[in-house]
Design brief:
Largest sheet: 9 strands, mixed
Oligomer: single chain
Strand content: 5-15%
Radius of gyration: 32 Å
Strand order of the largest sheet: 4-3-5-2-6-1-7-8-9
Structural class: alpha/beta
Helix content: 55-70%
Number of helices: 25
Shape: elongated
């Protein structure tokens, strides 16, 4: 069933928790971050992993015009049952959120008094005064909602600004075309008692013509944070003018690699007797129309988002019919008719065949792939790498202790003359390795400074280019006869593209360049370090030590965002920019004055832009590499060996007792090594099924 992808996500979370519990039992990671009884270190804790998984929400947004089959799709994709009522009209669609609840219920949020006043103000406008087709659609929607509100009479005021819980059976009253509360319903949350919906939000967004600004902003917020955004088209008229408006209105809120286009009801043109259409014909037409629309609107952000989108044809109705019990299908005239029609059209006779022809599995696989791309790195890969790195560190530390105790045993069994030579070699190794580490730090500083210098210019050029495009919009597209609202979407789109795509992508590229530089420097350093160790510590297993240390650094770079380009970037964004200058002045200014004011605001963006926070963000933990290398080679290896020699000299008369103690310690460390190997094998088994 389609909802298995949600069950699989839950199972994956539980397997990661099981692995983390094992790691905590083994002492690899602390059970809690602030437990004073446990070692204070930077290792991720069991508590943090559980907290991250429990708080994580998978958000899937669904957009598309009415009659494209969204309700049927959601019934198949989410419930595997005929749960949601038939769709409402384009004008009265509410923002709907499907999530987990201990019992079936709906919670409706009604418009506030201010929002309803805004609705009535829109309804009182003349459609001929609309700035564009989108504005005209908002006016029509507001008129319909206000008209439908008449059935509430004087009781309407009592509902405004409130939330209302109701039983699941009454959902149609809030989202149905003729529902009692549909005119004042801002959003509906549908709670459903299925465990696979824990930590899941399926958001069915209202149409592109939402007359209420606050709900429109909430819709944008959902689409921005969504892990996947599904745009559903109707195969009978794929990518018509309404679909274009939806893309221009909503899709630009989404990130690259998040949008999936479904062409629903593909069976209608496919099975048309007079003019049948092949699936590939429909897909090619949609791809062509999407690219054409992007070119015509000259919106680079949309081109980026939709450039690699491959539409997938499906039949949500066929998928749902393949999941319902046959007893339910045969007891319903509508379901039975649909079932027989599909079987006849495709020459099939079973639900399994119906499921295959629905193509729902292809669509769900595409959604899963997107979810994994969004979730895997932060939700699974990072903690998994951190756990494995913690186990590898324990193994490396034990191996290091074992090497040191073996060196001590050798020292205790050496004549004094050989000990003197060993001490001299250690001093040389310390001096030369320290010098190499200093050179590594200087090389990295020089490389990063060059990248920062180049990056500063790149980021400033990006901002300058965006500001020029904004000025072009206000001078070329904003005529005296148009309101500022006619160009605001283009300005906002350019601003959003600047921060959420252009600057972010440039910063990520700089961080990736820095990562490549450090990897190159590490390779050179470790090659030189291995030569030095073989020269001055010939009896030491330097190859394993070098390999282990290098792997730890490379894994840390991946698991802790050494060169960070993670979601914290959002804190650097430019949402504080505003076009408030115009709003304050209102209609008192001439069009020319308004243009000058907006141009001044754009100029201030360019003037006040500071690239340094972006650059600091990209290279925020570079110094930790040098600290780690110095610690591993000098503090953890060379200096303990030097201390051993001093200790042996200080206890010259107790060599036999020291040797006995050292051999006892070695035996314990060898037993621990066996235990760690067993733990690593056990963890690896769990990891393999993740």
């Amino acid at each position: 069933m389609a909802h298995n992808m949600f069950e699989e996500l839950q199972e994956k979370k539980q397997k990661l928790i099981a692995l983390a519990n094992k790691a905590a039992d083994f002492g690899w990671i602390p059970k809690s971050k602030n437990n004073s009884n446990e070692k204070s270190n930077d290792a991720i804790s069991l508590e943090e992993i559980k907290d991250k998984l429990n708080k994580d929400t998978l958000t899937i947004g669904v957009i598309g015009q009415m009659k494209c089959g969204k309700s049927t799709f959601l019934n198949s994709f989410v419930f595997g049952d005929d749960v949601l009522p038939a769709a409402t009209t384009p004008m009265t669609a509410a923002l709907s959120v499907i999530t987990y609840g201990e019992k079936e219920r709906v919670v409706a949020e009604f418009y506030t008094k201010d929002e309803w006043a805004e609705q009535k103000m829109q309804a009182n406008r003349d459609e001929n005064d609309a700035a564009n087709s989108l504005d005209e659609s908002k006016i029509k929607a507001a008129k319909e909602l206000v008209e439908k509100a008449a059935k509430l009479g004087s009781s309407l005021e009592n509902y405004l600004g409130k939330t209302q819980e109701d039983c699941f059976a009454n959902l149609v009253e809030y989202v149905g075309a003729d529902g009692k509360f549909v005119s004042i319903t801002k959003s509906v949350t549908i709670y459903y008692p299925k465990d696979y919906l824990k930590g899941v939000e399926i958001v069915d967004t209202p149409g592109f013509n939402d007359p209420i600004v606050s709900r429109e902003e909430r819709t944008k917020g959902f689409l921005k944070k969504a892990d996947v955004v599904i745009m559903m088209l109707y195969a009978g008229r794929p990518f018509d003018a309404t679909d274009r408006d939806i893309i221009f209105k909503n899709v630009r809120q989404c990130g690259i690699g998040k949008v999936l286009v479904g062409i629903n009801k593909y069976d209608i043109p496919y099975c048309n007797e007079t003019n049948p259409e092949d699936e590939n014909q429909i897909k090619d037409y949609v791809k062509s129309e999407i690219r054409k629309a992007c070119r015509e609107c000259n919106d680079n952000s949309l081109v980026e988002i939709l450039n690699d989108v491959e539409p997938i044809s499906l039949s949500a109705e066929m998928a749902l019919l393949s999941q319902l019990p046959m007893s339910k299908i045969t007891s319903s005239d509508a379901l039975n008719f649909a079932y027989k029609r599909h079987c006849s059209n495709f020459g099939i006779s079973t639900q399994n065949e119906l499921h295959q022809w629905s193509h729902i599995d292809d669509f769900v696989t595409a959604v899963k792939n997107m979810v994994e791309n969004e979730k895997n790195k932060i939700l699974f890969t990072k903690p998994l790498n951190a756990i494995i790195a913690a186990g590898d560190k324990i193994k490396a530390d034990n191996d290091n202790e074992l090497n040191i105790i073996n060196r001590k045993i050798e020292l205790l069994m050496m004549p004094d003359s050989d000990i003197d030579e060993k001490e001299e070699n250690l001093a040389k190794a310390n001096k030369r390795l320290s010098k190499k580490i200093n050179f590594l730090g200087e090389d990295l500083d020089a490389d990063i400074q060059n990248i920062v210098r180049k990056g500063k210019n790149e980021l400033e050029d990006i901002v300058d280019s965006s500001c020029k495009r904004m000025k072009k919009i206000i001078y070329n597209d904003w005529s005296r006869m148009k309101s500022f609202e006619s160009v605001r979407p283009s300005l906002d789109a350019e601003k959003q593209s600047l921060y959420t795509r252009k600057l972010k992508r440039a910063t990520e590229n700089l961080a990736d360049e820095g990562k490549r530089k450090i990897q190159q420097s590490i390779e050179t350093f470790f090659s030189d370090a291995e030569d030095l160790m073989m020269r001055y510590l010939s009896d030491f297993d330097s190859k394993d030590f070098i390999k282990s240390t290098k792997n730890q650094i490379l894994m840390d770079m991946e698991s802790t965002d050494l060169f960070s380009n993670d979601s914290n970037f959002d804190s650097l964004n430019g949402d504080s920019w505003a076009w408030g200058l115009l709003g304050v002045a209102g209609n008192l200014l001439t069009h020319g004055d308004k243009v000058v004011n907006i141009e001044d605001a754009i100029n201030s963006i360019n003037k006040n832009f500071d690239p340094q926070p972006f650059l600091n963000h990209a290279f925020k933990r570079k110094d930790s590499v040098i600290e780690f290398v110095r610690s591993k080679f000098i503090s953890d290896l060379i200096e303990p060996l030097q201390e051993q020699i001093q200790e042996i000299r200080a206890k010259k008369n107790d060599k036999e007792k020291e040797l006995e103690n050292a051999q006892s310690n070695r035996k314990a460390l060898e037993q621990k090594k066996i235990s760690i190997a067993s733990q690593l094998a056990e963890i690896s088994k769990i990891k393999e099924i993740l």
